[in-house]
Amino acid sequence: MEKKMKSYEELEKMFDENKFRDIDKEKNGEKFYYLRTISRLEIAKNFFDNNKLKNLDVTLQLNKLLKDNKFELKKIENFIIKEYEQQLEKRGITTKEILKELNEMKEFNWGGLYNNNLEKKL
Q1: pLDDT tens per residue, range 92-112
Q2: For the chain, which residues make up each domain, given as ranges?
């Protein structure tokens, strides 16, 4: 018997609880990580428009995409790459420059990091 795929909300709750290994074991775990990358309202709406998807409630649409086996990860990945390149262009910086700056850093104090839960602080 095949186990039921988890919803976006269930996977989001697992993410908030730092249960990444459990998410990794889920059939739709990888797709969840991709969709989570575009879950901010402005980016999600842009993604929906680019893929001719109805601009429904973001979580509702993410749930539909998560369960849709025909909707390929490659479409999400290509969108993420394009979005990233546009953000770099807007900021007038290259990936190479970002990596150079990161490599020059000796230490970064995240401040406010509690129980190794960076996500909630960001």
Answers
A1: 999 899 889 888 887 766 555
A2: 8-93
